[in-house]
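In response to reviewer comment 3 from the previous cycle, which asked for concrete evidence that the modeling workflow produces usable outputs, we include below a single protein chain processed end to end. The sequence was submitted unchanged, and the resulting structure tokens are shown without manual editing.
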Amino acid sequence: LTGGFDDKIQGDSLFILKTQDYQEIKQKGIKPYCFVVGSNDGLKALTLIKNLRADPKLGLIPLFSFTSFGDPTDRLLDAIVKDVKEATEKAADIIQALKKIDVEYMEESGSDTYRMLALLYSRPVDILVPYRHWQNESYYRFPLIDAIFGGVTGSALIEGLLDRKLVETSQLIDRLRLCPKCNGAHLNYIDVCPNCGAIDIIHQPFLHCFACGHVAPEKSFFTQDALICPNCKGRLRHIGSDYDRPLENFHCRECGHIFVEPAVSCHCMHCGTASDPDALAPRPIYSYQLTEKGRISATTGSVEDIFSLFDNLNYVNPIVFESILDWLLSLCRRHTDEHFSLIAIRMVNLIELADKIGRHKTKELIDEFARRVRELIRSTDLTTRTNQNTLWLLLPKTPPSGSQIVLNRILDIQTESEIGLQITTASYHAPSQSIDAETTKLLMARLQSEVLE
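The workflow returned the following structure tokens.
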């Protein structure tokens, strides 16, 4: 275990502490610049790496190793390095990102979610990739989450982050079918009798007697010198005229049923539940990455949606907002005397402001901004939010001059801001700016592009 201490690095000089017990670091109260694991013992290295990642005060520090231990241990490291110099070079970007995070607040709050966001935000590749592990009940797991939070399952934490829109899916890795009772991924697919569900079925050739219609296993027709139907005792000489081979080739030894193809039953190896394939619960397996809201939450120290302050501004669900906008577009195309305006507003430097003035003042700033906007809109105007920090204003019966007045007043808020608030806006008026065949989604996407430029 090697640590270079950031308060002692001067020029090319580097002070290195070598120890076999990371508790020594904690006892001395020293905060390392980075860790480098020098052990070649995979088991000892894994134990040490897990302890470091699980430690609330040391878990965010860049962690490297001289040796590759393979999956899943390597997933807990930031990189494999040749020497300490390379480790300190690779740690530089991580350290710079960590400076934007209120680590002391994170430690005081004890928030597992905040720790996860901080770890992802501070790494060059902020992606959680699942690891396929056959011993895991759900088949896939997240070693990094398991190491940091111990008993907390990765899927439970990921679902929480997804629900709060702090992470989003990045790439589809696999598709699973899970037990509908326990969500286990280890299933045994068994051919069973479609009549009684028994597994004691055999595959054997059958014959069909044309004279009486009797169908039975081929061996039951054989006598010493001929084929004789066991039912009508008729002699079977020519296939196609006296008998043929039916499609049925399976026989259930439990109920005697004869059938063409067996049914399939899925037996869970965890809880023993037997299910039809159609009853299995589908689950796509993704890798995940931070959303813009997640990055903002990592730097502001708040995992709550600070933009929810805008939701008191005659807010409607985005789906409802798009439906109303679509209706207004159709109305304006049919009746040229109808008109409305649409405005998109985006705060572009929230992360920089949070880093500059702190999370609490940033929240106060957005609260003030929402209050000022609330004074501008009428009771008939509607708002919604997309992409977390993009606010939409729908102004019915508003000509271009009216929407320009609203825009100017919003920009005045930016001008009056003493701490460098930056706002970008885009506007649209119908029917004067209507484009043939432009749908609601295309219109909003076009304005979204304008505010993102």
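Residues 129 and 287 are 5 Å apart (CA to CA). We consider this sufficient to address the reviewer's concern, and the full set will be provided in the supplementary archive.
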